[in-house]
Amino acid sequence: MKVSFKLLAISVLAISAFQSCEKKSQPADQLHIDTMVAGPVNPNEALIKEAQSKPLTNIALSEDTFDFGTIKKGDVKHHTYEVTNTGKNPLIISEVKPTCGCTISEFTKEPILPGQKGKITLKFESEAFDGSVYKTAQVFANVAKAPIMINFTANIK
User: Fold this and answer.
1) pLDDT of 77-92, one tens digit each?
2) Which of 121, 123, 125, 151 could be cross-linked to 104 through a Cys-Cys bond (beta carbons 3.0 to 4.6 Å apart)?
3) How far apart are CA 60 and CA 87, in angstroms?
4) Sign (positive or negative) of CA dihedral 48, 49, 53, 57
């Protein structure tokens, strides 16, 4: 029974991930929100363990949510989030994982020394969406509460 439940949860997660990036014709007032199915399987467990295997430090974000405002369907938008290492050990961002294939991440790969700044850039391709969208990316780093979530919103016309 446990195996069947795990397979069902994984199937639902896979279908949800696929459907959240499909091209949709929705009313402009409908909000598209990334969702993650809570279940007994944590696919990010290995990423969390890897990130936290280094000496822990602290991070401060310039912002955790950005609003692109109203954009034209098909526009490709970029936004850079600034991160500051506010701890005593080097900050190591091991992965930035967007929850949708419509978003691509780039981030500072080298260790960020205490007091120094790094960057995380998210690139959003809006072609498959209409109306309001809310997208998320998970930031895996050597901090106590990983992953850290960063988000953006847009209204696509």
Assistant:
1) 999 999 999 999 999 9
2) 123
3) 9
4) positive
